[in-house]
Amino acid sequence: MKAIAKLKPERGAMALIDVAPPVRRPGEVLIRITAGGICGTDVAIWKWHEAVVGQYAPSFPLIVGHEFAGTVVESDSPRVKPGTVVAVNPQIACGHCRYCGMGRPTLCDDRRLMGGRINGGWTEYVSVPEWNVHPLPDGIDSAVAPLLEPLSVATHAVLERVPVRSGDVVAVIGSGPIGILCATLALAAGAREVMVTGVAADVSRLRMVHEIGAVPVNIDAQDPIAVLRTLQADGADIVYETSGVASTLEQAVTMTRRGGSVGLIGLCHGPSTFKSTPVVLKELALIGSRGYNETTWSLMMNVLPMVASDVLKLVTHQIEFRDFERALEMVERREGSKIILRP
């Protein structure tokens, strides 16, 4: 079968290759892949940014892709029968370390992310543990399935790590897919206003921000802090930083009201500095949010019927596996919003 694989630990070195089909083991589900998504981590693996790939230590060749979905082909589980459309939690945890025992497998001592440390889903078939497989709720468009991994990242941040309360004013730094998904969930959670910032190159993404009911701000043409003050005079109750740009941490602190919270989601590839005095004087909470836990996926499936139509708006391009490099280049150039790969 065909698979997109990283061949060596260096810039580029990725190709569409032939690999042996997986053999399903007891307790696993065999899935025929119908779609995969691309995110900044995949670009970092392609470009081999040490700040990101250093946490994985994969062996090669490595089948890439941690955002993927498909249809069950073989299963012994009554929960996921053949023919079921499923999304896959690509995080394989050890199940017995301190953090797994605390219900936080995203911090697992032996965390294996499919497509990062072990083989992922940019291929034709995968076999994964049954409990990493999540059927879509009844009545949900199956096209949303490959978007559920990034939606789970946003769910962990907005509904678990730094939860939005009804009436909150929320600011999201970054108008990429995770930023837009955070805004979508914040609105669904009852936020009174949600502002999302981007740059001039994000014009189509900012248009999407407006379509979901949030306030778009092009920081190349508007002062985001001035816009925020029109929504709430003393700043946002919560700021989610999703861009991973080093300079935005200080901006996030400035944008947050006294006693507010900053959720840090974006992965920054370079050093970042900021004055800690405002954090102390304003008694701010700076909270990191990484990936998701099993509780996150269950929570997301309950919320999905409320947000699925807005989540689907993110898909702007669908590209075949053979053109994966063009798709990665588009993500790097910030073209479109969510690009879906098809086998």
Task: Describe the 3D structure.
With 343 residues, the protein is of the alpha/beta class. The protein has two domains: 2-150 and 292-342, Quinone Oxidoreductase, Chain A, domain 1, CATH 3.90.180.10; 163-288, 3-Layer(aba) Sandwich (Rossmann fold). The protein has eleven helices and 18 strands. It has helices at 40-47, 50-53, 98-101, 148-161, 177-188, 203-211, 224-231, 248-255, 277-281, 294-312, 324-332, and strands at 2-6, 14-18, 28-37, 62-63, 67-74, 85-88, 91-92, 112-113, 125-129, 133-135, 169-173, 193-198, 215-218, 236-241, 256-264, 285-288, 315-320, 338-342. The strands form four sheets. Strands 3, 5, 6, 9, 10, 17 and 18 form a seven-stranded mixed beta sheet that branches. Strand 1 and strand 2 form a beta hairpin. Helix 1 (40-47) packs across helix 11 (324-332), helix 4 (148-161) crosses helix 5 (177-188) and helix 4 crosses helix 10 (294-312). The protein is globular, with a radius of gyration of 20 Å. The model has no long low-confidence stretch (mean pLDDT 94).
Describe the structure in brief.
With 343 residues, this protein is of the alpha/beta class.
Write the CATH fold name of the largest domain: Quinone Oxidoreductase, Chain A, domain 1
Integer average pLDDT: 94
Low-pLDDT residue intervals, each spanning 5 or more residues: none
Q: Name the CATH class of the largest domain.
A: Alpha Beta
Largest sheet: 7 strands, mixed
Proportion of residues in extended strands: 25-35%
H/E topology pattern: EEEHHEEEEHEEEHEHEHEHEHEHEHEHE
Let me know the CATH homologous superfamily of the largest domain.
Medium-chain alcohol dehydrogenases, catalytic domain
* Number of H/I helices: 11
Number of domains: 2
What share of the residues lie within helices? 25-40%
Identify the quaternary structure here: single chain
Number of strands: 18
Principal-axes geometry comes out as globular
Distance between the termini: 10 Å
